[in-house]
Amino acid sequence: MSPIERRLARFSTVCLLLLVGCGGGSDRYQGMSAEDLFRLAESEFSEEEYDNAISALDRLLASFGDWARVQEARLLLGESYFQKEEYLTARSEYTRFLDRYPVHPLAPRAALGMCRALAALSPEPQRDQAYTQEAIGTCRNVVIDYAETPQATEAAELANGLRTLLAEKDYLNADFYFRRKLYDSAIKYYEFVARLYPETPFAPRALLGIYLSNQAIGYADLAEEARQQLLSRYPDSEAAAEIRIDATGP
Fold it and tell me: Which stretches of the chain are assigned E, i.e. beta strand?
């Protein structure tokens, strides 16, 4: 075989393997089995070519819905959308997985995927926190439904972080009113933080805010009550140190 013939043969082989239809065909996946498509999708995913992975997976799911590993393909589709930061679509794919395969061994991963997708949609504290609230509920369900799994551990961490975000939102509202000397409104939001999010770093700062607000109004008894709560619940916090300095000041 001449060098030219060898090059032509090599080119034909590459075309066949890549399934790009060198003879003029337009279907790049023609002739590929479900296993071939899944391997291709995994390869594209690992190379961060998520659009290509999604395309291969869409073809697989449309053509081989009864494939033995179709659940893995469905999960990889959700993860591909997540990596593309298309979080709403990723959530839909994870939801579809759980609706169809609720007892599959991969179900914890899909459930965590929903939790992570919603957490990624959570906005800055100043904005509406509907996605944050939904994410907390979803993540808590992962903790309950898949207890003692790595997915439950990660979901709990995400839920705790989101609760801190909600605490920050209420604390910022309180601080807004405090700086404008609207102390009654400030106290209301400080109390939300102290009561609803006691495990967050904003709780001791909220008690300090209640103390300072009541002092400004002239409610010494309520100020003292907030001071005692702060010192007993969060004795090592910066807010407690500040309140001690205030109490011993001139």
Answer: none
